[in-house]
Every structure is written in C-alpha cells, then in structure tokens.
Write a structure and sequence with these properties.
Pfam families: A-sol_ELP1 (PF23925), Beta-prop_ELP1_2nd (PF23797), HB_ELP1 (PF23936), Keratin_assoc (PF09775)
Domain ELP1 alpha-solenoid: 244-438
Biased composition (Polar residues): 681-695
Number of strands: 23
Strand content: 5-15%
Distance between the termini: 145 Å
Organism: Ditylenchus dipsaci
Strand order of the largest sheet: 1-2-3-4
Transmembrane segments: 847-865, 877-896, 902-921
Largest sheet: 4 strands, antiparallel
Radius of gyration: 61 Å
Amino acid sequence: MEINSTACLATDLAGLAVLSSNGCDLAIFEFNQRKCQLKKQLKLMIPFNFLYNLGWKNANQLTAVQRCSDGQFALVEIDLESGQINYIYSSKTPIVYQKYSQRSANYQTSVREGVHWVVANDKDDWREGSKSKPMSRLHNSKYVDALNLMLCLTDNHQLFVNGQVLHHSVSSFSVVDENVDGFLLVTTLDSFLHAIPLEHLQKWAVTGGGRAIERGAQLVGHEPSGTRVWLQMPRGNLETIHPRTLLINRLKHWLDQLHFGKSLKEMRRHRINTNLIYDHNPQAFLSNITKFLEQSPARGLHLYHVPAPLPQSSNTCPQPEYSTTTTKVNGICQAVIQGLLNQPHKLTQLYPAVLTCFVVQKPSLVAQALSHMQLQLKKENGQADQLLALWLRHLAYLVDERTLFNQALKTYDLNIALKVAEASDRDPKEYLPILNKLRQHTPATYQRFQIDLMLEDWASALEHMAQECINHINTHHLHPQALALFNGHKHQQAILEVCAQEAFNSKCWTEACQLYLQANQPAKALECLCLQLDYQEYIQLASAHPSLVTPQQLQTNLKKMCVQLEARANYMCVAEILLYMDKQTNNPKILDCYCLAFEWKLAVQFAKQNSQMPALKTKLEERCQTLIKCLEEWKCQVVQHTHRLGVVRTSKQTQLSQWMQQEAEDLQDVGQSEVLSQTSTLSNASRFSKMSTASGRKKKQIERKKKQIKEVDGQQDEMSILLPALLALGLISQGQQVQRQLLSTLKTCQDKHSSIWPVFVEPQHLPGPLFEIYRCADGIVRMPVEGTMPQRIQIEDEMVAPQVRAISDKWRLKIFEILCRRSPCVDHPEYGLGQVFKEYLSANRQGTLVAGGLGSLVFTFALTAISNFKMANQGPVAKAGLFEAGIALLIAVIASGAIHRVAITICVLFSGVLLFFLNGISHSRYHQTSGPATSAQTQDKKKK
C-alpha cells in the first residue's frame, strides 16, 4: 500500500499506524526483522474532520485528537476491528497532546493554554491535573507513564514538568526509554545538548556542561534501543550523534552482564576512557579477570592498559559515580599479569600486554619487565630472536630509549643491557665502553654498587655496599669486630644474621640461638635449640610462637631429642621430656630413665604414683648386685696395686743403696757412658722417644687407677638416695649388704691412702727410673751423696693424691648396722636362761637334752654374729671359715658345760646338724655355702 500524503503516524511495540491526510485511510503495519509489513487497512468515514496526535491504546485500539466541524476538539478511540470511532472527551480549547496511561488507565491530555487534564474511561469523570501560567501556550507535550511525568514545552521555550518550570531556554526535547532508567534529551537555546536521567529530573539544574551542537539544531528522534540521536540543522541536513551519557549507560548494562569484549570495542570506538571497565564494579572485574582476558583481543587488551591520549576523555565519565583510587592501576596490572601467566597457551601472543602492565605501574617496573622477558625468552625455542625484537620494539614505544637502557642496567644483567642497546639506535661506541668497564668490577655486589653509582641510585648503592660489607665479614671472619662496630646501627640486624649463621656453621648452637633471637628470627633459634638438645628453652620458645611449630612438629622434635639424649646417657633429661609429652604411655620408659640416672628418690615417687613398684624393686635388686660386685673388684684392685707399689719402691730403695755403695756397676756404666760418649745423641733421642710414648701410656693407667678411687668415694652420694629407696621397698638385706661392702671398700682405700701417697717424700717415692730421677739440667746423671734428694724434681700427676672424703655419717642408715648386732644380743638371754634353770636341767636326762639344745642355739647365733662382723669389715662376699666355726663351737661348749658335762656332747651333735641345714639353706638362696670355704675355693682366690 502506498500512502501519498501522511497526516500522522503512531509507533509502538504493537506496530506502526499510518493515517492519510484525507482522514479516511488507516494502515496498520507490524515489525518483522527491522522491516514493516502491512497487517491491516481500514477505511474511516469521518467527513470534514481532521485527526492528529495518533497513539496506541492497546493492540486493537488507537487514540487520537479530532478537530470537529463546530470548532471543538475531541479525544476519540478508534476500534481497529470494526473501524468505529468512540468519543471520550471534548474541549473548546485546542488539545495539544493526548496519551493513554496503562498504569492508571486514564487519558493524559494537555491543552494549549497550559492546562493538564486527566480524563477517565467514563466520559463524565474528568478533572484538572495541573496548570501552568495563563500566557504560556503549549506546542509539544510528552507523558511518561512509568514515572507519572507530564513534560510540556511552551511557545516561549519553557519546559514544564507536571506544571513546574524545569528550564526557561529549551528549544526541543525527547524522551529515551520511557521507564525508570530512561533519559530526557534537551537542546537549549545556548546550543547545548543535555541528557538527564528521568529519575533525577526534579533535581536537575543546568550549571554548564553538556555537548555543544550547532546553533539552531533541533531534536528529530533517537534510536529506541541504542545510543544514536538525530538532529536537524538549520540548513536542513540531518546529523547523527552518540551522547556520552547514553553511551555510559549502555556500557553499564553490558558490564553488568560481563560483556567485556563488546564494551572494550565500544569504548575504543567512541574514545571513552577504558578505566570505566574497572571503575564500574572493581570487585566483579577482578573476580572475572579470566573472562576479560578471553573476550578481549590482543591489540585491544594492550590498548586497555595504555593511558588515553586525550586528557579530557576521563572527564567525560560521571565523576560522582566513578571515583579514582591511587592503587587502582597497580591492582589491575598485577591481576592481568597473573591471569595471563595462568594461560601459557596464549602467553606468547599476549606477552606485550604483560610488558605494558609492568611499565604503566606506579612506579614503573621497567627493570622487572626486562628480567621477566629474559626468562620468557628462555622458554621459546625457535622464535626467541624474533620475539626479542618484537617485544623490545613494543617497550621502545612505551619507554624512551635512554630510560630503557638505564633500566636494563638496573636489572644488573649486562647481557640484557647489551641486547637492549643493540636493539636501539644508539652508537656501539657509546654503550660498549660502559658495559666493558662494568664487567671488570668483581664481585657481583661490587659490580651492582658501581651500576647504582652510575645511575645515581644512592639508596640501592648503599644496600649493595652493605651486602659487600657482609661478604667481606664472612670472607675474613670478622664477626666479633662487626658486632662491636655495628652495635646500634640500622644494619645491626643484618650483621646479627651473618654472625648467627657463622656460629651455626661452627656448631656453636648457644651463640647462634641468642644471635638469631636478637635478629628476630625465632624459627632459626628453634632449630639451634633442637640441635643443642636444650628441650626446656625449645618448649618455651615454641609455646611463645605457636605459628612456627605445630603440635605434631613439637612432638616429633622432642622424640628426636630423646633419642640423642639417651645415646649420650643423659637419662634425666629424657625422663623430663617424656613426662612433658605423654606421662601415661611412657610410664615404663620414664622409670627406666630414673633408674639409669640413679635418681632413686624420684623413681620411688614415680613408682608409687603410677603403680610401678614391682618393676622398681627388680631394678633396685639388680643395682645392688652390680654395686656389690664392683665395690669388691675395686677393693681387690686397690689392695693389689698397693702391694705392687710397695714392691717397686722397695726395689728402688735397694738399687739406690747399691748405687750409693757402688755395687751396681751397670748403673754406673750407664751414667759414665752418658758423660763420656759424644756419639750417643741418636740413641738417646731414640730412647727418649720410646720413653715419651711409654710415659703417655703410664699417665693413662695412673688416671684410670685414680678414677677407681674417686668412683668409690663418689658412691657415697648415690648411697644417700639408694639406701632410703631400698628401705622404702623393704629390701633390708640388700641395703645391709651394700652398706657393709661400701664401708669396707672405703675403709680399705683410707687405710692404703697414706702408703700410696706418703706425707714425707723420699727418693724411692719419686716416679721413674733412678738414672732419670738424678739426671741434672745439663743432661748428666750425678750419683746422690748419702741418699740425698735429686737437684730437681718433676711433679708428676701420680704424685698428687686424689681428694678422698672421710666416711660420712649422712648416707649411712643405722637400721642396717643394728641388724648386725642382733645375734650376739640374743646369746646373752639364752645363756642366762641356762644358768637360772641349771638345777632343773642337770637333774634328769631330758634336762640334759634341753641344755644341749640351748648350747646348739648359742652356737648358731654366735656363728651368725661372727659372720656379720666379718662381712661388715670385708664385705658381703666374706665367708665364715673353720676358724670362725671353731670359735662359735667353743662358746657353745662353754655355755653347755656350765650346765652339765653331758650337755657338751649333745651340743656338739646338735650344732653339727644345724650347721648342715644352714649350709643347705644358704646354698639354695644365695647359690653359695655359708660354711667354711673349701680348699679349692681358697686356691682360686689366691690365683685371682
């Protein structure tokens, strides 16, 4: 259908309605793929009438304003199904604008005199909405249903909003997107185009700004879902523009939907600052940095990080909505770098963007960019040279040539600096001497110091000089001097770390730990304490820094300490560590450690608390047997060595007497040969060398013998806690035996002490051969005169007596000594009973038998008393022999004979029977007989 003359038209989502100028032909078009297709055609029968301001009410009805033949104006509805026209409202005043409100189901109208009428569906229900000044005549109106706004423009360029003047110099206006987030486009008489959000329309006041347009330009229309706006110029041509406010609003919707690629392309097209991508929603941008990198093209991604060339481009963004932060650029660049590095398949293609991110940061990281580029080139196999030229050219676009070379030097890699210089236009005669001179400086820290001096980076030069100072301290081991020199200095912490490391390498764990603590490095201090096996300090420091040592690591390290301390026989520390770790599961091990450390008092307390008394009793019995055996061996060795020493001294005294009487010709020949012979130097040196070796072995033997005496003396300290423990566990016999054996050994040592180390020293008491004792300072052996002492005496270690304490009463228990005296005390009552009942016992045969039995009991207790006294003097291994048994039998015979002579025979018989049974009991319990020693045993003892 062709309509040659169009009177008015109406567009909506329902379609396009076109009314011809004759007022009879009405065509309805629908939109299909951005094209209009004829849907329906109607023939209206309205003679001599004119319709205008056509609009859609719904899909089947249109609304319009009709100028009637009588000069009135009417609001009418057109039914598209039947073509019927219904009259809604009439007015004598010309109606300028009408629109049906879907929200309120009313008609919004504006008349020429500035009156705003609201007309309901009912023809009789109408009311006045708002009214402007009487002299104002409207020629353009627009109703926004979503916000209930009536916009009216008068003939004197006043813009009214719901009857209130919004602006006094408006030439044209248009509404974009009639909803809450729509905009009002306004052209003013001063030739500016403004875009005002409808929701902020009441607060808008023109204070400047806007987009400058040609004088006299009028708004014709706008793109419904886009940003294009059409203006008609005074000379008649049409122009299309994209207001910046509409563009920003459209970009906001795209960014909310994470369409980064489309947004970036639109920004570059309209020269909008790309900071908007981040400023719109920083958190969403950083969270979706991977999607941003995937959607952005390589060139667009690079240009995103390059500042916009126009300084006013950033000012076009709404400043109240999008504020800037000082760390924004660095945060974006770091996020982009990390995102690109996580995409190795695209990294080579997008690597210029990585370099750009390094450069645009504040401060610029050109040196880091070059170092990172060097590492990336090593990963490229066949394209390294091409990529190097490409990437250096890219950096040259961002950074000037001189700065790029200086930053290449700042990497402290002269190879990178050479490549940068070769890629530039600089003369080789200019940069090669600089690089060659820097290569001559060694070591590396000093070379960096020289580079910093050349670049005038004084702070970095100071740091590298400090590092060179540290290297100097390490090379020449000047750690003590450095600590004193840098005390209180700002580099003191670095010096402390160096000294601590030196102490650590030297295995001086205590010093290293203290230095690390002063250097504020508790992790290293914990390592030193672990190696030092200082578990107490380790536990305390680990508790103060729980973030450094987890409970599992603490348990593991303490277990390692236990193993090493146990290997060093430090059982007391092992027990304390086990108590800290877990007392319940380590009870047997803790008791073993107490026993191995000879801490018997703590062992008894621990055993009582944890029901370990049987185990402790077994260990005490084993310790008693070991002590008795060792004490007996030490006693025998002291006696043996003392006897041997007496023999040697007697022999030396005899030789000295023979020497004095000139009866020992061999000794005189030795002395005279040393005086007269001048060719014996070599033999003397050889003899002295052998004597030196023998002297060394002799010193070790002497120290070992002295140690035995000291160990015997040291047993008194253990007895002070061992004997009470034996008494607490009821081991009376073992305690008695140990106490007796120790007293016997100590008494032997004290008796032999004066004979081994006499108070007055004579020549035979001096150690060494006689001819060495009387050798003078000139090397000549001079015979003594009348047994005098030598001219000089060398004080040997064996001449110094060890300090042996007197037998103390503090460790001895009297209860063990009282048990030794019970047997003789029992003999007295038995003998007294026999004398009291002597007449009755001697009167008949039965009494004589009783008297003989009493005599055998006297024999038993007398033999026991004699054995106890012997063991008290000679140790628990002493045995009662025939002599002791004879004395005990003599005492028993005397006691029985005092009653009756026949009782003597009975006493002897009964005593023999008791002796036989006692011998069997002793053998079964102690695995040895308590009777007299056999001749074979006596011979074995003599052999030993």
